[in-house]
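WARN retry 2 of 3 for item q-0093 after timeout on previous attempt; input resubmitted unchanged.
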Amino acid sequence: MDGWESRRRRTPGHDWCLIELGLPGVIQGVDIDTNHFLGNHPPHASLDACRLPEGASVEGAAWTEILPKSPLEPGSQNLFAIDHEGGWTHVRLHIYPDGGVARLKVYGAVTPDWSRHAPGALIDLAAVEHGGLSLACSDLFFSHMMNLIMPGPPENMGDGWETKRRRGPGYDWVIVRLGTSGRVRRIEVDTTHFKGNYPDQCSVDGGFFSEVDLDFLEGSEAAWMELLPKTKLQAHHRHIFEEQLRDGGPVTHVRLNIFPDGGVARLRVFGVREIDDGSVS
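OK item q-0093 returned
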C-alpha cells in the first residue's frame, strides 16, 4: 500500500503519527485521503497542531486541536476546512481506532520568520519559503506556475513553468505576490532544462498593491512599473540581472513576461525587505 497503514488494534486506544511541516504557516484546509483503503480505512480522524522553535523536540509540546474527531469515507479524499489562527510547524494525525491513510495534505499560507535574516540582507522575496505565491498566469498547459518559486534547482522541464506554443500575437506572463514588500536588487530567470522551448525574451514588471483581486492585477488599471526591460534569453541558462534593473521603489508583486512563449524553470527576486515605517530591514 502506498500510504500509512497501522495493524488491526485489538486493545483500547487509537493510532497516531507526527509530521513536521515543510514550512511554518497558517493551516486553512486538510485532505485526509483514504484512496485504495476500502475495507481498512479509519472510520474517524482528528488533527492537532503546534508551533515549535527550529530544532526543538516535540516531547512536551503544547498541542491545539484544529480538527475535531470527524468521520472519514473509504477510498476518498476527505476534505476539511480549518479555521484556526497561528503559524504551525507540526501536526499530529489521530486515526480511530486504526487503519490506512494514503495521503495527508495540509494546505495553508506560509508565515516566514523574518528575524532569521540580518538587517539589510538580500532575500528571495518571491520564494515560497518566504511566503511568495504565484497568483495567476496566461497559460500553464505543460506545468504549473508554482514551480517557478519552489526551493532548490529544477530537476527537469516538468519542474518549471511551461506554456503551450503561441500561434497568434501576444505573449505569456505570470504574476507572483512577494512574501513581503521590498526593493528589488537582483532577478534570476532560470531556463535550465529548457533548450528548444525556452522563451526568446523576457521582461519583469513590479507593482506596489494592497488588498487587490486578480481581475485588477490582470487588467489594464494596475500600475505596473518596468523593473527589467525586454531582454534576450538563452537556452538552458541561469540568467542573473542586476545592473539592468530599474529602481521602481518598493514592490509587493512582480510580473514575469515571456516573449512569445516557452518554459522557465525558476524565478528568483532578491531584494531588501521593507518594514512598516518605509525603511528597509
